[in-house]
Design brief:
With 410 residues, the protein is of the alpha/beta class. It has 2 domains: 262 residues, Rossmann fold, CATH 3.40.50; 104 residues, no CATH class. 47% of the residues lie in helices and 14% in strands. Helix 4 packs across helix 5, helix 8 crosses helix 9 and helix 9 crosses helix 11. The relative contact order is 0.14.
Length: 410
Amino acid sequence: MAAGIIKKRCFLCIGGYEPIAADWWHERTRRELKRFETTWNVTSIVSPRVISDDGAIAAWKIDTRGPNWQVETDYRLLSWDDFVSADFARPKMERVPRGIATLVNFIFSGTAYRYLRTSFRYFLFFIYPAVLLASLIATAVMIPYLFSHFVVPLSGVITMVISIVAFVGLLYWPGNVLMIDYMFDDWIFAGEFIHQSRAGIDERIDRFARELVECARDSSYDEIILSGHSLGGAWMMAIVDRALTLDPQLGKHGSALWLMSTGSSLLKVALHPKAKWIRAATNHVANAKNLNWVDYQAIVDVISFYGANPVEAMGLGECKKPIVQKVRMRKMLAPATYKRFWGNFFRLHRQWGMGNELRYFYDYLQICCGPASLEDRVVLRDRLMEFFAPNGAYAGTSIAPTSRVAGKVS
């Protein structure tokens, strides 16, 4: 077996704002590994999933093999989909006024302006539900007006009733198709996260932090990765900050400990003036000397802050972390697949956690299950492909296993 190859890894995953339960996530892992096997000419086996007694952690093992390497991955899903499912269950008549109030708060607090200043693409994503809502209201008002103008005059009371009924109907269609419910729920939760007003969040952060500390103290791993996708990037900062409180020596126990944010929405909450606590948590994490942090960004992912260093955008000053690396999703997918996904922003946003069709330095399942360390992947980028043979063999690299990476990589 070649030198410098990872043999055992712990991969802790924090997903974004989606009602994805452990069973679905486990099945997706199986499905995406089939694509991974084809792309890299390897084999894999996934164990049944196991749920912790409190339901907060789902775990399974992934055994991956190439001609000259074998990796055992302990995959642990840090679940918070129960919060999302509860949000999705709320009635529309509660969701709409709360959603409007939340968006208004983000505008008048100056947060929307900070989005505009930091990432124009994300600003457009922010105003989408507001523009959509305004369009539905305008349409509801116009329906009785046009009827009265072209068919028969209507009284003011009837006009108002028709407008209200039309608006409620439009919330169901085309509102459901255009995902207005999802957008409102997403922003409402972000507001609750910022103000720390949602019951159960702090307890879940503490639970995840204890899981991270336990894994970090396990010397049997060659590498430990904590991955936060989308709004999971904000959860990741809160979790690691809490873990550093529990264990100030976190990351110094032997195994390299990496934080990996993909399509991160950390700035979605951190740019709000009331989010002092998450900015303090990020500052704590960014300056922790025993931790490594890479932030992957893609220009086609509008549901994230492309081109922004999150630490600098928060006004925390210059820091060696995170290492910001830009990814081209076009190089991850076959041309026909990329063309099909183009314009489907939610699907492209989810690609961060799915299998590649083409070999590329960013590959979620290679990071989870492959033989190369995340440190080698960050340092070498595209050059890492030189070490993989067509038959799936991996030659290892000449990079010394320092477990620490300094500086920024673009």
